[in-house]
Structure of Pentapeptide repeat protein:
Amino acid sequence: MIITFLSRYPGGTPWSVRISGNPSEPVARRAAIEHAARTGEALHFLSLDGMDLSEGHYEGLKLVNCSAVGVNWSGSKMAGASFDNCALSYSLFGRVKAHGAAFTTCDLSGSLWNGADATEAVFTAVNFRGVSARDLVAPRSRWSSVRTARADFRGADLAYADLRSVDDREVILAQSSMPEHIKAGTRCVAAGSSIENAQKFAAQFNPEAVA
């Protein structure tokens, strides 16, 4: 099996990967991303759906336009990794070390982040709906244009996080630590059908947030 990284090839994109032999073989896919993480090349249009990539070393990994639905990343180290326009729904990110990782225009809906470390991670234009992020450690993380409806952040550490443009309808925030001040434009609310109850819950973190 041969894995070749090319700066350009006809019909491809810069820094794409071509795998000779059986292109669907999981061993080749894992070898490709481990190599890419070590060397800094970005992987484009790679399919990782359903793979077990747990306990791996993917620091600095760059995935662009890749499909990684239902992937098990549990316990992996991916500090500084970047995911751009990737399908990551229903994947397992439990206990990952993703300090400073960046997710841009990605679908993370239904994924599991329980106990993950996303300190200073950046989530931009991401679908985070229905995510389980209990005990997530994400202080100083940045969230911009993120949809978090029905996400579960119970016990999460979001201290000093920038949450100014989060769509947080029905978000569960019980026992979570939040920024010192809920910033303008952010609605940090608890799960529930009534805005009134959600506002009362938000007041636990910042009494001045609710008139």
